[in-house]
Amino acid sequence: MDISLDSFGLAIKPINFCDITTFQQPILNHGYSDLPNFPSWQEFADRSNGLKKGYENYVAYVVFKNDNFISPIGVVAIQLNTYKSLKDKVPIITPGYNQYLYLSWIAIDASQQDKKYFEILFYFYKSIVKQLAMTLSTKIAGAAIVVRRMRSLFFSLLNRSEQCPETTKRNFDGKNKKMGMVFMPSELLSKPPPIPQDFVMINFYTIDESISSQVKK
Amino acid sequence: MDLPEEPLQMTRKEQEHAMKFAQRSVEKGRKEFEKYVQSLKKQGYSDDEIEVMLD
């Protein structure tokens, strides 16, 4: 079940195929003090094994460097949701897609954040969305809640020449030939959450007829 | 990024405004994408080749 990203020197493995008791740290050292609810490896494992209510269809993928399976350097955690179940958590999504692969967490160890690993992990997420859409013969969009400091990093994935908008007063979007992203600043809510964040819908384009033909016009 | 765990407090109007903005953006993006695909097909690329370009 290892998913190899050899060309990048990385390997990715679902957490329920890992022996987390051998991990050198109980939690990923993501390097930020304002994320008190960042899950431990045990929590990720419990969610992925269906032991936590509200975390159905959840998988956390653990990222390793050079096949060293005791020192994780990152995590990509996803959850398959319906529009109905996700719309109260990520308001900037559309009923034109019935299924969403919610990006619950994407994080890199603090010691590795100077590298391009974030892009690689996002590419991995994109490949799961596309594979799942093919497997289930349906169209699936991405969705995420992004803490404010991560906004520009997400926007940069579009490889656009213009700078990431700094606004907190309006929705905005960005597109390239491979995907589109729609952002909603949390400040637009009359009762915004205490930590400034952006709600994001991600639309990965595909020419697969079984998927694209179902997109509402 | 899994913030917050509890559902957001928002009005129906706020939710509808966000949803409509997303719908417009998705539709516009899809149309631009379809134009792009058609232009590639006119250049002779096959569906498989275009799919590879999208990865």
Tell me about this structure:
The complex is a heterodimer of chains A (217) and B (55). With 217 residues, chain A is α+β, with helices and mostly antiparallel strands. Chain A has a single domain (3-212), classed as Aminopeptidase (3-Layer(aba) Sandwich). Chain A is globular. Chain A has five helices and nine strands. Chain A has a nine-stranded mixed sheet with strand order 1-2-3-4-5-6-9-8-7. With 55 residues, chain B is an all-alpha fold. Chain B has a domain at 23-54. Chain B is 71% helix and 0% strand. Chain B has two helices and no strands. Chain B has helices at 12-42, 47-54. The model of chain B has no long low-confidence stretch (mean pLDDT 87).
Keywords for this structure?
heterodimer, A: 217 residues, alpha+beta, Aminopeptidase, 9-stranded mixed β-sheet, 5 helices, 19% helix, 29% strand, disordered C terminus, B: 55 residues, mainly alpha, 2 helices, 71% helix
Write the layout of secondary structure elements.
The complex is a heterodimer of chains A (217) and B (55).
Chain A: E1 3-5, E2 10-14, H1 41-48, E3 58-65, E4 74-82, H2 83-86, E5 99-108, H3 117-136, E6 140-147, H4 151-156, E7 172-175, E8 179-185, E9 197-204, H5 209-212
Parallel strand pairs in A: 5-6
Antiparallel strand pairs in A: 1-2, 2-3, 3-4, 4-5, 6-9, 7-8, 8-9
Chain B: H1 12-42, H2 47-54
